[in-house]
Write a structure and sequence with these properties.
single chain; 590 residues; alpha+beta; eight-stranded mixed β-sheet; five-stranded mixed beta barrel; 18 helices; 24 strands; 29% helix
């Protein structure tokens, strides 16, 4: 029998009345009522109330135990006079017969463990071992464990084989900065932590592993965001041989739907999920990760305004958003939206608006410029009717979509139009294969290893900027959960695709030698994707910040305040890996 406990703090019930038991955990509260002392003992499983008998010595000793100390308590279970409906153990209490302090709290607490008041995040991360005692955060970590186990079970049931890929590998350009690891036995050379197992999982397809998956750690030297942890993250990485885009969708939709259904009570999009082309998504929502809970839609009205004498919109791409229930929208709303539009968060040159009143009479900042003919076209194009309002932005075509998207989101929030209890999934498909970079040159727009739609013929005959790729993103509530693609497994197509983007064949072989070489030995068509585990858990837990679902996250500056990383190392360690540090330029900057 365990010497510290016979039961955990969440399992005793009225059926245990009269039993002699031992429980162990942390002292959450101590309440001295004079003749009696009550204490709540907490462990991972729950809380049990204990109470002293009339023994004066024990009353004095128990009342002086510092909260958050660990104790083992032996006593008899009895029925409470008054049930605590908030606890699973609320019908019983344990009358203390003996106790032992196992780990006494010696220092003052930096913050109250279960207090809802705001605590600075850096302080929480510095004392993460205390922060994890908080019930809400603890439950998030337990939820994380259950979700990962559920994902793994589903993938195995679908015939996927779990394979662990290397953590120490070679540096490769995948869109973010690598974390580099110097080699001791190969002076001047470096490993890199993988940004993703991309090349390895494709090599597994060439090797004959038909369906691969792993809960994969990925490492990217990126700045933090609310939905992106700096340093490292986990993804449900998967790849399928002899598979098309549709095959990937069929697997992922069922797995994701089942996972959200299992762990959330919110309404969930049924599969197959809605599919939206990249072009339509940017036009209608101003983003390639649209939040479909927001009913507002963007419409292009450039052609209508090209016929109107309104200089502010002359020669510009004009987008509009129709708002419902204009009669309930105050002037303060329009002023606030105008202020937001011109703020650094949106960076629009301005925001115009009109209302559609009775008899389709227009009212607002630009109403006088809209002719009767233009009004008819505008209402027909947008579907606006009496009782609606319209917001307008105008700018260069390359940037107006993003501006309109931010205004759409902000208007949806301010008007309280966004559905509260639903998960809206969609696929963004048909990404352009190429785009123009800042210097006007053809460059890959998404993933250089994706298969172009139309294959080699498209690469040889079409305008590169018109070529689409078999690339796809899974989006939920405005959060990109994953990116994936049908892979380019044909060396000839790969060489041509890179050639269009300005790379010689030698560059491919130098940067991706294993993959390029493997494709010369009979590679199967294959496709894959990698839903972000942390982001899925963040959405299911309804947390606004991804760090709330990670046990030991870094802060927004990519620092581990608990362990003191990144930190300095000794001269001996540096010599062993043939590294010299020169901070002169850095010190000058500071």
């Amino acid at each position: 029998m365990n010497k510290y406990r016979t039961h955990n703090c969440g399992e005793l019930r009225l059926s245990n009345e009269g039993e002699k038991v031992t429980i162990a955990g942390w002292v959450q509260t101590v309440r001295n009522l004079g003749g009696l002392v009550f204490a709540d003992i907490r462990d991972m499983y729950g809380i049990t109330q204990v109470v002293t008998s009339g023994n004066e010595k024990m009353i004095e000793e128990i009342s002086k135990i510092p909260v958050e100390s660990t104790v083992s308590i032996t006593g008899t279970v009895r029925k409470k006079e008054e049930k605590n409906k908030n606890l699973a153990t609320g019908e019983i209490e344990v009358v203390i017969e003996s106790y032992e302090i196992l780990g006494k709290r010696l220092n003052l607490l930096p913050f109250e463990i279960n207090d809802d008041k705001d605590v600075k995040e850096d302080l929480r991360l510095q004392y993460r071992f205390l922060d994890l005692r908080n019930e809400k955060l603890k439950n998030n970590i337990l939820l994380r464990a259950k979700i990962i186990q559920f994902l793994r079970t589903q993938m195995i049931a679908k015939g996927f084989t779990e394979v662990q890929t290397p953590i120490l590998t070679s540096s490769s350009p995948e869109g973010a900065r690598d974390y580099l690891v110097p080699s001791r036995v190969h002076p001047g050379k470096f490993y890199a932590l993988p940004q993703a197992p991309q090349q390895f999982k494709q090599l597994l397809m060439v090797s004959g592993i038909d369906r691969y998956f792993q809960i994969a750690p990925c490492f990217r030297d990126e700045d933090a965001r609310a939905d992106r942890a700096p340093g490292e993250f986990y993804q449900l990485d998967l790849e399928m041989s002899f598979a098309t885009q549709e095959d990937v969708f069929a697997v992922v939709e069922e797995v994701v739907y089942n996972t959200f259904k299992e762990f959330s009570k919110k309404e969930i999009s049924t599969y197959p999920f809605e599919r939206i082309s990249y072009h339509d998504s940017m036009l209608k929502y101003g983003s390639d990760k649209p939040d479909l809970r927001n009913p507002l839609v963007i419409t292009d009205v450039s052609e209508i305004f090209s016929k109107i004498e309104f200089n502010a919109f002359k020669g510009k791409t004009v987008r509009t958003i129709v708002l419902p229930n204009a009669q309930n929208i105050s002037r303060k709303f329009y002023d606030g939206m105008s202020e937001f539009a011109t703020s650094p968060d949106c960076n629009a040159k301005g925001l115009a608006w009109i209302k559609v009143n009775e008899n389709e009479e227009l009212q607002g900042s630009i109403a006088k410029f809209i002719t009767e003919e233009a009004k008819k076209e505008l209402l027909a194009k947008t579907g606006a009717t009496v009782g609606n309002a319209l917001l307008f932005v105008a700018d260069e075509e390359s940037i107006v979509a993003g501006i309109a998207g931010k205004i759409r989101t902000e208007a949806g929030i301010r008007l309280d139009l966004i559905e509260k209890n639903s998960y809206k999934f969609c696929w963004i498909v048909d990404f352009p294969m190429y785009e123009l970079d800042d210097d006007g040159n053809i460059a890959f727009s998404h993933n250089p290893f994706s298969m172009p739609q139309g294959g080699l013929e498209a690469l040889n005959t079409k305008n590169p900027l018109e070529i689409l790729a078999y690339q796809y993103d899974l989006v939920c509530n405005g959060v990109e959960l994953s990116s994936g693609a049908v892979r380019n497994h044909d060396p000839e197509i790969m060489v041509k695709a890179f050639e269009i983007a300005g790379y010689e064949k030698e560059v491919i072989f130098k940067k991706f030698p294993a993959l390029f070489n493997a494709f010369h030995y009979g590679a199967p068509p294959h496709a894959g994707i990698a839903p972000g585990v942390d982001r899925m858990i963040m959405l299911i837990a309804d947390e606004p910040n991804i760090r709330e679902v990670i046990a030991f996250p870094m802060n927004s500056k990519a620092q581990d305040l608990l362990m003191g990383a990144p930190g300095e190392v000794t001269e001996k360690q540096l010599k062993e890996i043939h590294i010299k540090i020169d901070l002169k330029d850095k010190q000058k900057e500071e």
